[in-house]
Amino acid sequence: MRTVCIFMLITAVIALKTAEAKIFKKCDLVHQLKKHGVPKDEWSDWVCIAKGESSYNTKAINTHNPDGSYDYGIFQINNRYWCKTGSKGHECNIKCEDLLNDDISEDIRCAQLIKKMQGFKAWVAWNKKCNGKPKPDISKC
After folding, report:
1. Which of 42, 45, 81, 124 is surrounded by the most beta carbons within 10 Å?
2. Active site residue 41
3. H or E element in which residue 51 lies
């Protein structure tokens, strides 16, 4: 019963947070990356990751990981290692639910930490859709 109540609480919090979410356009994402100090030579990789992982959707949640973990937000940050569901915690010291709104400051900060620790290979989408393949054209951004 306790597990059901916790799940319902988490679901309610996620539902409230997703009301604030948005779907970025690639150039809007590039402007956010620039604003947050992400190196220019990484922008196309981050845009490719966001497109492949969430279709630029800040409210995206993947609940189908084989290990039972969830991925949250525009960069699909995992709650087993990086964010914690329900309270601040794990490597990025953030609540996963805070990755589901239109302010992607925490998403970028955490994604940069993940990249620093594991490289872009930490993202399934980068491995399958970006690594060694044409990335989204951001030249007009």
Report:
1. 45
2. no
3. helix 43-54
